[in-house]
Design goal:
The complex is a heterotrimer. Chain B is mainly alpha-helical. Helix content of chain B is about 70%, strand content about 0%. The chains are: A alpha/beta, B mainly alpha, C mainly alpha.
């Protein structure tokens, strides 16, 4: 097996509050191979974005990594000093945010934002940085890139701006891109274009993607493997086709049953009873147990079998029983 | 349900009060000063503005030391005319606080009323009110107050000027501070106006005034309280400034600002206590009210600034 | 751009007309100008004659128009108290105020901005905490107390700096400047600190809160996520966005400096227009008050206009009509 681009081992993030200690990411492990697209799904607050932010080292205080390791191409990066981590951002790991309307500095022309990123990470002259900026805009399909390079963000539409954001995330040629809900804020008609673009560009460069989303449809069309998160923990991890067609964890089963997928002509959607517990009121053992139809006594004692990366199993004691 | 909400609000409010040492200390300090001002006639050892009780021999007594002629001891010393500084401060604070509270009350009534009208009625009346507010906001409050004071003084017959000075002062400071109230109330009214319960009340045939007073007013109380507290600090400072400049409280009824004005004359001759104690009192009072307002703003309306 | 400028200029013009109306009403209705100008010994004929000369027998709009015409030409009549033309008195004293205000403004904006950015970037450091706590005291401290405190420290106790007046002044053409002599510069130190300190505190606190707000924005996160240096994130991306909301308030603060100069000039007996204004209030010298009001209004309106134009220069979103954008 090739060495993974990214390897996350038992990652834990905690937020100390006045009276309590929250753990929005708990014991999460997974690998991403070069060029692979890993979809990360889950409800709001499941810890998907927090995991992405922890990997790229942009957790907002007081949140911080309190356990586990993050390896990028064989280099451990979770304990790097700030300056070394800064060099990795943009060059080692790129990031695409959710809302293109707010991700771009409104007062700087997009070309200036591209050029500063390129000059920061690549040993190129100013002229070459400018040329690369235009090339990057052409690649993401901005018409008239040479002319538009000095335009301000407000002069572009939402979809175009997200293309600019993608150009910015990729312009220093990172091996991994973390895309945090890259299509959620866009018009439905534009969403597919952006996903296709992101996928094509990464295929061409061999860039891996960690695609954080709550949209199962996007995962189904885009990802190679999928990681399902619930209440800060990874509950299922496996190849996308297997997980979608034969989910193992009761939560994933519920999630699939409540998702309208074009490929499956189901008549009606089911819903999972109840809501995800608040992080300050997690039940002992498996976090899904209060909502789970197949919960037993043992579920209150431990979180289920440890998920090792890539073997397609779920963190549930009754995986066999349920999937059978 | 409403009771429950009210109780939760009150307890949250009290919780953050109990956990903010700054709020507790400034509340206690402000309360002590306000009580001292109210009870001045009972606390003050002397009645400084009764000429009959003054002894010029007591002039310029140092604090805590017996006077060289009369042997009397004054805590904080005396001024040139033998007035006990401690007593003048108590009476001066009374005037400062009276002007401050009265000016804020005036500004609040004026601003809330105009804000409700501007927000609820809208139209050209609303536009006119807000335009006036905008123009006034271009000028610093203290300048507006000075100007109004000057004009009002021009209207007052000369023999009444000293007597009327306090009221003119209240009018001028109040008129210079209504804008903040009006803006906040108008904004909140515009929001509340669109909500269903107000429209329901209107459909029930209630008059505009009744709707404004019964439904909208309670919703803007929080921000208004915050602005009132901050305005109180501003008014106290404005009053002191005007009086210090000689365009406020008259020497016959000195406020803290007047006392500082008088004390400044002795800065070079060594009678520091005539200046220092009124100045320290003013600073303490303004700081306590300001800190209280700051804390209130954080608790009641974090988005206000 | 041109349409915008014309619109703003027009609005400023309206404001000036309104202020002019207020100033004129002061003339017309506060006290009786005829009473004020004629002494005790006057006859009915004198009064009628003066009414005619002053145009008080003409209809209100005509009088207002004449007043405005005079105001534009710098003619505000004669001071009741000094018996000299107001324009003469004011132009004598204006340089003192302008020099004081300019130095204070530079102090307030320069130091206020630098400190504000500093406490925003190092917001959890003890230095920033100390600065913020001290600044709260600064906001509560009335300007005149700052002045008295400085006088006490540096004039009475240390005897380093003068406590009143402008020191030695030099005439440069019509302008009486204190910038060119040592005593003039020394005399400027305490008043300009007094005047600038409060505005500096306000600007600092404002810059801090706006900068913290900007630092929370997505584009700052994205700039960090692209691996830009802190220097670039703070000074290239954050600062410019901080400027936009700060500029308006700073403009207003600069206007306040002119107004607060009244207080500082009184404390330091600085022979400027502020001191003149306070004296005119004490003696109800209406022409001087009206002229001062008009003068200050013109300055405020000019500052507001400049602020609007600065906005325009900084924020590309206001450049409507440039390469027709969407969204």
């Amino acid at each position: 097996m090739v060495e993974p681009v990214l390897s996350v081992r038992n990652l834990q993030v905690e937020i100390p509050l006045r009276k309590s200690l929250l753990r929005p990411v708990d014991n999460v492990s997974f690998d991403i191979a070069p060029g692979e697209i890993l979809g990360v799904v889950g409800e709001s607050g499941a810890g998907k974005s927090m995991t992405g932010n922890a990997i790229i080292g942009l957790l907002d205080r007081p949140a911080h990594i309190c356990g586990g390791e993050v390896w990028l191409r064989g280099q451990r990066i979770d304990n790097l000093p700030p300056e070394a981590m800064r060099r990795i951002r943009g060059k080692g790991i790129g990031m695409v945010f959710q809302d293109p309307l707010t991700s771009l500095n409104p007062l700087l022309p997009i070309g200036a934002q591209l050029r500063e990123t390129i000059s920061e990470h690549l040993p190129v002259s100013n002229d070459e940085a400018a040329a690369r900026a235009i090339a990057a805009l052409e690649e993401v399909g901005i018409p008239g890139a040479a002319r538009r390079v000095d335009a301000y963000p407000h002069e572009f539409s939402g979809g175009m701006r997200q293309r600019v954001v993608i150009a910015l995330a990729l312009c220093a040629e990172p091996g991994l891109v973390i895309a945090d809900e890259p299509t959620t804020a866009l018009d439905v008609s534009v969403q597919a274009q952006i996903i296709v673009l992101l996928k094509r560009l990464c295929r061409e460069r061999g860039t891996a993607i960690m695609l954080v989303t709550h949209d199962m449809g996007v995962i189904a069309e885009t990802a190679d493997r999928v990681a399902v998160m619930y209440a800060g923990r990874l509950v299922e991890l496996g190849p996308v086709r297997e997980v979608l067609s034969a989910p193992c964890h009761p939560y994933t089963i519920g999630l699939m049953a409540s998702t309208p997928l074009a490929s499956q002509n189901r008549k009606r959607l089911n819903q999972i009873p109840g809501a995800m517990p608040r992080l300050d009121a997690l039940p002992p053992g498996c976090a899904f147990q209060p909502r789970c139809t197949s919960a037993r006594e043992v579920c209150g004692q431990g979180v289920g079998p440890d998920l090792t990366a890539g073997d397609g199993r779920a963190a549930c004691w009754f995986t066999q029983a349920v999937s059978a | 349900m409403r009771q429950a909400i009210a109780r939760a609000w009150a307890s949250d409010f009290m919780w953050s009060f109990r956990h903010s040492p700054v709020a507790i200390v400034s509340f206690i300090v402000a309360m002590v000063l306000i009580m001292a001002a109210i009870l001045a006639p009972f606390i003050a050892p002397h009645t400084p503005f009764d000429p009959g009780s003054l002894n010029l021999m007591n002039g310029f007594s140092s604090p805590m030391q017996p006077n060289q002629f009369t042997g009397e001891v004054f805590w904080l010393g005396t001024d040139d005319q033998g007035r006990d500084v401690f007593s003048t401060i108590l009476y001066g604070m009374r005037i400062s606080l009276f002007v401050g509270f009265a000016a804020v009350t005036f500004a609040m009534i004026l601003g809330v009323t105009l804000g409700l009208i501007a927000g609820y009625a809208g139209g050209w009346v609303g536009t006119l009110i807000m335009r006036v507010a905008d123009v006034q906001l271009t000028f610093p409050g203290i300048l507006v107050a000075m100007l109004i004071f000057g004009i009002a003084k021009g209207f007052t017959p000369i023999h009444l000027r000293d007597q009327m000075a306090i009221w003119v002062l209240i009018f001028a400071i109040g008129l210079s501070e209504w804008v903040q109230f009006a803006r906040v109330v108008r904004g909140a009214t515009l929001v509340e106006k669109g909500k269903e319960y107000v429209q329901a009340a209107r459909l029930c045939g209630r008059s505009g005034t009744a709707i404004m007073v019964r439904h909208i007013l309670p919703n803007v109380l929080g921000p208004v309280l915050v602005i009132a507290t901050i305005s109180l600090a501003l008014s106290i400072i404005a009053e002191a400034t005007l009086s210090f400049l000689g365009v406020g409280a008259p020497p016959t009824k000195p406020s803290l600002g007047t006392l500082i004005r008088i004390g400044q004359g002795y800065l070079f001759s060594g009678e520091w206590w005539i200046l220092l104690f009124p100045a320290a009192t003013l600073l303490t009072l303004a700081l306590a009210v300001n800190l209280l307002g700051d804390w209130l703003r954080d608790v009641l309306n974090p988005r206000l600034r | 751009m041109l349409a915008f400028t014309i619109k703003r200029t027009f609005q400023s013009f309206i404001v000036l007309l309104v202020v002019g109306l207020v100033a004129f009403s002061m003339f017309r209705f506060v006290g009786d100008p005829v009473d004020n100008m004629l002494g005790q010994e006057r006859t009915g004929a004198d009064i009628e004659r003066l009414r005619g000369v002053l145009g008080l027998d003409q209809p209100f709009p005509v009088q207002y128009f004449k007043f405005l015409k005079g105001a534009v030409q710098g003619n505000f009549g004669v001071s009741y108290r000094q018996g000299r033309p107001v324009s003469e008195i004011i132009s004598e004293r204006l340089p003192a105020t302008l020099e004081l205000a300019a130095v204070s403004a530079i102090l307030a904006v320069g130091i206020g901005f630098a400190l504000g950015v500093f406490v925003a970037i190092r917001r959890d450091g003890w230095v920033a905490h100390t600065i913020m706590t001290v600044s709260l005291v600064g906001v509560s401290l009335p300007t005149f107390l700052i002045g008295i405190l400085l006088i006490y420290l540096f004039s009475v106790e240390l005897n380093w700096l003068p406590s009143f007046g402008r020191g030695e002044v030099v005439m440069v053409g019509e302008w009486r400047t204190g910038f060119l002599t040592k005593s003039g510069l020394q005399a400027l130190i305490l008043p300009s600190i007094t005047l600038g300190l409060y505005q500096m505190t306000l600007i600092m606190r404002l810059v801090r809160s706006e900068m913290l707000e900007v630092l929370r924005q997505d584009y700052i996160r994205f700039a960090r996520a692209r691996g830009l240096r802190d220097r670039s994130v703070y000074f290239r991306h954050a600062l410019k966005n901080t400027l936009i909301p700060v500029i308006t308030v700073t403009g207003l603060q600069l206007g306040s400096i002119i107004a607060f100069a009244i207080i500082t000039e009184t404390v330091f007996q600085w022979p400027g227009v502020g001191l003149l204004f306070i004296n005119s209030i004490q003696f109800v010298d209406i022409p001087v008050m009206a002229a001062y009001l008009m003068l200050v209004s013109v300055m405020f309106v000019a500052i507001n206009l400049i602020v609007d134009l600065l906005y325009f220069a900084i924020d590309p979103r206001l450049h409507v009509g440039r390469s027709g954008g969407t969204g």
